[in-house]
Specification:
Layout lengths: L15 H15 L4 H15 L8 H10 L3 E3 L8 E3 L1 H16 L10 E6 L5 E7 L11 H12 L12 E9 L2 E7 L12 H18 L4 E7 L3 E4 L16 H13 L6 E7 L5 E4 L2 E4 L6 H16 L3 E6 L4 H14 L2 E4 L5 H11 L7
Parallel strand pairs: 6-7, 6-9, 9-12, 12-13
Antiparallel strand pairs: 1-2, 3-5, 4-5, 7-8, 10-11
Length: 365
């Protein structure tokens, strides 16, 4: 009998460089971009798991990183000092994108689908009569000529404006997003590293927007005792500090950044693991880490309400399961009419992508 016999597919072995490179990128996120510390950890892993071979050692790997443009010498740090290049920073973002969003389906580049028709780049099934302002590329000439024959007969062909039929396009919207990352000390308390997943999500989201939704905008900011904007290239180096959580400062900065964007669709994503514990009051930091201070909470809720009036929805990704913290987030979300996800670190990226793409209320298990 004629046919085909399929055997089990065995992927080719990764080269030593690829294996080391993937580990190195992961370590750089954990070490906040410290090349020396990451290489030291990589050496320890190599000694334990024997990743390198007699033909290819760590010295070869470091030389390849330089030759390929991932590392460059940093003279102030001495002969053995290295810093990351822009190519390496982008590679880390691409790696984060693949880890978090790698299983997603392809979508139209650059825009978000909506339920409306209008200016876009994809035809819909809807047809309508020609209106002043429509362009020639929108006209369905087949249906238009058919109308001309029906309306005027076939003896003397005449095509009038009333005969023209226009194909509707799928309208696609632009979105401006402000991503807030909590860098207060609680993000590394209790033996759990919460800042690294937050950074990876931010890098993945920024890479996704610049490649898949280039018409969208993304502003990233960190908040602790105060809030400050950060560039995409700064994400691998972001560190937790001895800070309280000034959610008000973060929201105020996010609103200011979004105010500068000439786009009606605006949203805030906030990744945090705790309650607000700090505000500016009379020119000084007012702090209280015990319980839920009503002075701090009320000011935070007032800002949530102000965002609602401005049409800015806030989606909170809460990396904590404490019941009293969840009650605060529920109150915050109700005031803003936004959304809240109580998520583990593992599922954080998927939740953020789903909400970013769909931009509507949905149930997440």
């Amino acid at each position: 009998m004629t046919g085909f016999r399929f055997s089990q597919y065995l992927p080719p072995d990764k080269s030593v460089f690829v294996t080391l490179f993937e580990l190195f990128q992961e370590l750089l996120v954990y070490t906040n971009g410290d090349v020396t510390e990451a290489l030291d950890w990589l050496n320890q892993l190599d000694r334990q798991y024997q990743i390198t071979t007699d033909e290819y050692g760590m010295g070869d790997f470091i030389q390849d990183l330089q030759d390929k443009g991932y590392l460059q010498k940093d003279e102030p740090q001495g002969p053995g000092g290295f810093v990351l290049t822009a190519k390496m920073e982008q590679s880390i973002r691409q790696s984060s994108l693949e880890q978090i969003f790698g299983k997603l389906k392809k979508a139209q580049k650059g825009d978000h689908r909506t339920k409306f028709s209008g200016t876009g780049d994809e035809n819909s099934a809807d047809r309508r009569s020609f209106q002043y302002g429509d362009t020639a590329d929108q006209i369905d000439f087949g249906d238009s000529i058919k109308n001309a024959y029906i309306n005027h007969g076939i003896g003397d062909f005449t095509l009038m404006e009333d005969d023209l039929v226009v194909v509707e396009k799928e309208y696609k919207a632009q979105t401006s997003t402000a991503l807030m990352i909590d860098v207060s000390h609680s993000m590394i308390l209790y033996g759990e590293d919460r800042i690294t997943p937050a950074k990876k999500v931010a890098m993945a989201l920024s890479e996704m927007i610049t490649t898949r939704f280039p018409k969208d905008t993304l502003d990233i900011l960190a908040f602790g005792n105060d809030a400050w904007p950060i560039e995409i290239k700064d994400l691998p180096y972001l560190e937790v500090g001895p800070f309280h959580t000034n959610t008000v400062a973060g929201l105020e900065l996010a609103m200011d950044l979004l105010r500068r964007r000439k786009n009606p669709n605006k949203q805030i994503f906030m990744i945090t693991d705790g309650k607000p514990t700090c505000i500016m009051r009379n020119g000084k930091h007012y702090k209280n880490s015990f319980g839920l201070d009503r002075i701090i909470v009320n000011k935070t809720l007032n800002l949530a309400a102000h965002c609602r009036k401005l049409g800015i929805k806030i989606t909170t990704f809460m990396i904590a399961r404490d019941p009293y913290l969840q009650r605060f987030v529920e109150e915050f979300t109700q005031v803003n009419q936004g959304k809240a996800f109580y998520t583990s670190l593992k599922g954080l990226g998927e939740y953020i992508f789903e909400d970013y793409e769909r931009n509507r209320r949905r149930n997440v298990r």
